[in-house]
TrEMBL record, chain A:
Record's bilayer topology term: Peripheral membrane protein
GO CC term (a single one): plasma membrane
Organism (species): Yoonia ponticola
Listed GO biological process terms: peptide transport; transmembrane transport
Protein name: Dipeptide transport system ATP-binding protein
Molecular function in Gene Ontology: ATP binding; ATP hydrolysis activity
Coiled-coil annotated residue ranges, if any: none
Nucleotide-binding is among the record's keywords: yes
Pfam families, A to Z: ABC_tran, oligo_HPY
Keyword Kinase on entry: no
Automatic annotation (TrEMBL), chain B:
InterPro entries in UniProt: AAA+_ATPase, ABC_transp_ATP-bind, ABC_transporter-like_ATP-bd, ABC_transporter-like_CS, Oligopep_ABC_C, P-loop_NTPase
Keyword Transport: yes
UniProt xrefs under NCBIfam families: oligo_HPY (TIGR01727), PRK11308.1 (NF008453)
Record's protein name: Dipeptide transport system ATP-binding protein
GO BP terms in the entry: peptide transport; transmembrane transport
Length: 325, 318
């Protein structure tokens, strides 16, 4: 039984110009102690699916799913009050912009102690001791003094550590990191990724890493789910995904990486991600796909078997059949 | 060997910050003396983490700010504030954020023609339009885009417009300040290809400012690595990427994630963070984070030698 199980999740936003489908029939499983990466370009719905699961979307969003369970709780039928007990406690999230996610009006120590008070009911002394312990765990030097610092007095890397400390304060079973290192420099990024991986090893929590950086995926993730225009188009373990991608989009995305280039001109993907008004009828990637035919443009492909990475494609790449022909 | 299109010697920019009635202002050395030469048709990449002074360098060479000391020359002419106006058109800049750098109230036509209206007053309206339409074609946009507004374009197309605008005055040098870091991966490769095409066709010199080492490795010919306002390593791309000499370069390279899950992970972990630029350590600025630091590093500042591949370090790697 997996820790998080999502089946057929769709999210629609009511906008002034009509309905916009941000997440389209996504299935997702996360097991205890594993690192899953969700990759995709901007607008591929990778953050929205996780926010929907946590119930953090605004009222304009309509969430539908066949199944959405976390650790035995059914998130679909659960009321807001019960959900709030889980969110921030067993289920925690780190956001992209540490500077704007922290409250500038309170010292970081106050903010971290708040969750300890609400979720764990510790007394003042225990909270203080636990906060110092957490700061040490995430590698903040001089934790005693840093507790009374305000977010603007610390660097981006330090603030992100505070966010991580806050997220792991209640020993969550699942931690969702939404672009945790995008705003940071590479040397700091390396420190934060190592920290997240070592926290996973220590606590055995599940970790969902939402990112657009293929390098981060390759170095950190164990399993990768690729999203495009709201759909999950492929899911594989990390090594086979980089070696033998099955969906043409994954393949094209990997080819576009500068470090994989064999010549000066990089292979490109023509066109842009479809928006609200130019969603194609068939396969969403068909207008940009070099293998697309009439069938791709008319029908929407269903996911293939597990062996083919559940690729949403009629003609998956790197199969025995393809290699033979 | 061709003559460099731009040379800089000991280029520096200091800012005075703070200071009240009783306290003296402190000096912040944003760029503390940089030498480089830029050749036509070549790309010089400047890499470093945030706060290392790479954007200040861009502002200096585009004549937005006056250097505190040192000088630079374009095409043999020394740049002084008196002749800024005449030299500015030979060096143009493309900014990082294509959403912020285009005026949402101007049509593409106006955006592209504005530099001509200001700098080429002798051109007629028809000539300006012809030139703008030609430029739209050159950067891979369609003719019907001429009358549209920036909000009608995607990020990649906007960056193409920004590049077209920078090229309107036929510059010799293009400063690219993180031109692709705001773009998605699938768009990024198309914009990089465009930059390579334009360079070959127009023999442009690029000063490419970036923190993304995989992009730098792909596009550049020479690399300067900056740390706290100083160049710590300089050399050809191949030399720097294959045999980094400065420990900081080495750490930066090892920290950059590789898109290959099977690659060996030999990350050099740097402890600590960039020190405040107001309190740069006395000796080597990298000494507090360096793993092979010795007493000499803390007392003396290593200088960059004039070699083709040089590192400002007493105990270089390799």
């Amino acid at each position: 039984m997996s820790l998080l199980r999502i089946r057929n999740l769709s999210v629609d936003f009511a906008t002034a110009s009509g309905k916009f489908r941000a997440v389209d029939q996504v299935d997702q499983d996360v097991d205890t102690g594993e690192i899953l990466a969700i990759v995709g370009e901007s607008g591929s719905g990778k953050s929205v699916s996780m926010l929907a699961m946590m119930g953090l979307l605004p009222w304009t969003a309509t969430v539908t799913a066949d199944e959405m369970t976390f650790d035995g709780h059914n998130l679909l039928t659960m009321n807001t009050k019960a959900r709030r007990k889980i969110v921030g406690n067993d289920l925690a999230m780190i956001f992209q912009e540490p500077m704007s996610s922290l409250n500038p009006c309170f010292p970081v120590g106050w903010q971290i102690k708040e969750s300890l008070r609400v979720h764990l009911g510790l007394n003042r002394k225990q909270r203080h001791a636990r906060a110092i312990e957490l700061f040490e765990q995430v590698g903040i030097p001089d934790p005693e003094r840093r507790l009374s610092a305000f977010p603007h007095q610390m660097s981006g890397g330090m603030n992100q550590r505070v966010m991580i400390a806050m997220a792991i304060a209640c020993k969550p079973k699942l931690l969702i990191a939404d672009e945790p290192t995008t705003a940071l420099d590479v040397t700091i990024q390396a420190q934060i990724l190592d920290l997240l991986a070592s926290l996973r090893d220590e606590t055995g929590m599940g970790l969902v890493l939402i990112t657009h950086d293929m390098g981060v995926v390759a170095e950190t993730a164990e399993r990768v789910s690729v999203q495009y225009a709201g759909q999950k188009i492929e899911e594989q373990r990390v090594v086979p995904l980089f070696d033998e991608p099955h969906h043409p989009y994954t393949n094209a995305l990997l080819d576009a990486l500068p470090e994989r280039a064999t010549e000066k001109r990089l292979p490109t993907i023509p066109g842009v991600v479809p928006g609200q008004f130019d969603r194609p009828a068939g396969c969403l990637f068909s207008p940009r796909c070099k293998f697309a035919d009439a069938k791709c443009k008319a029908e929407s492909p269903a996911p293939q078997s597990d062996a083919l990475g559940r690729a949403r494609c009629f003609y998956p790449l790197n199969t025995d059949q393809r290699q033979a022909s | 060997m061709t003559a460099p299109i731009m040379t800089a010697t000991a280029l520096a920019r200091h800012y005075e910050v703070g200071g009240g009635i009783f306290s003296k202002p402190k000096t912040l050395k944003a760029v503390g003396g940089i030498d480089f030469a830029l050749f036509p048709g070549k790309t010089l990449a400047v890499v470093g983490e945030s706060g290392c002074g790479k954007s200040t360098l861009a502002r200096l060479v585009t004549m937005i700010e006056e250097p505190t000391s040192g000088s630079f020359a374009i095409d043999g002419k020394t740049v002084l504030p008196e002749n800024w106006a005449s030299l500015r058109s030979s060096i143009q800049i493309v900014f990082q954020d294509p959403y912020g750098s285009l005026n949402p109230r101007q049509r593409i036509a106006q955006i592209l023609e504005e530099p001509l209206v200001i700098n080429r007053p002798e051109m007629s309206r028809a000539e300006r339009e012809a030139k703008a339409r030609e430029m739209i074609k050159l950067v891979g946009l369609r003719p019907e885009h001429y009358d549209r507004y920036p909000h009608m374009f995607s990020g990649g197309q906007r960056q193409r417009i920004a590049i077209a605008r920078a090229l309107m005055l036929d510059p010799k040098v293009l400063v690219l300040d993180e031109p692709v870091s705001a773009l998605d991966l699938s768009i990024q490769s198309a914009v990089l290809n465009l930059l390579i095409d334009l360079q070959e066709r127009l023999n442009l010199a690029y000063l490419f400012i970036s923190h993304d080492l995989s992009v730098v490795k792909h596009i550049s010919d020479d690399v300067i690595v900056m740390y706290l306002g100083r160049a710590v390593e300089r050399g050809s791309k191949d030399a720097v990427f294959a045999g980094a000499k400065h420990p900081y370069t080495k750490a930066l390279l090892s920290a950059t994630p590789q898109a290959d899950p099977k690659a060996p992970k030999e990350r050099i972990k740097l402890s600590g963070e960039l020190p405040s630029p107001l309190a740069v350590p006395d000796g080597c600025p990298f000494a507090p984070r360096c793993w092979k630091v010795q007493d000499k590093c803390r007392s003396e500042r290593p200088e960059l030698s004039a070699d083709a591949h040089a590192a400002a370090c007493f105990f270089p790697e390799n």
